Amino acid sequence: MKRPLPIPLRVLRIAGIAAVAGFAIHGWDDKKEKPPIPDEKRVAMIDLEDKQSGPGYFHADSATQPDENGIRWLEPDQAKQQIDRVLHDRKLDESNRKQLAKLIGEVSEPYPSRTIGGNRINIARLNVALDAMPR
């Protein structure tokens, strides 16, 4: 016949099982600050802009910083000043100049604040539309 374990050993055995189960469920939490999870939309927008940073694309000046969503904005006049360079880099002819000007007008959107006024252009959206434009 088996002898039962003394009560103190039973308590230790139960405490050990509870500790192992607690670590298995909750992991080792030593109260270290965990890094924040990056915003997927912001990361995707920055990645898209990096891919569209070569010649043949519209670019923001170096002073333009992305907003909280990772979007860089461009004034329509700044985009129109880059039409000649984009036409040359993409080896497009003068007939495409009107298409580019129309494209800039289509992707322009008003500022969310009424105090600023005017329009702005999401550079990534403009460049994606530029890639989709028929040649």
From TrEMBL:
It comes from the Bacteria. This is Potassium-transporting ATPase subunit C.
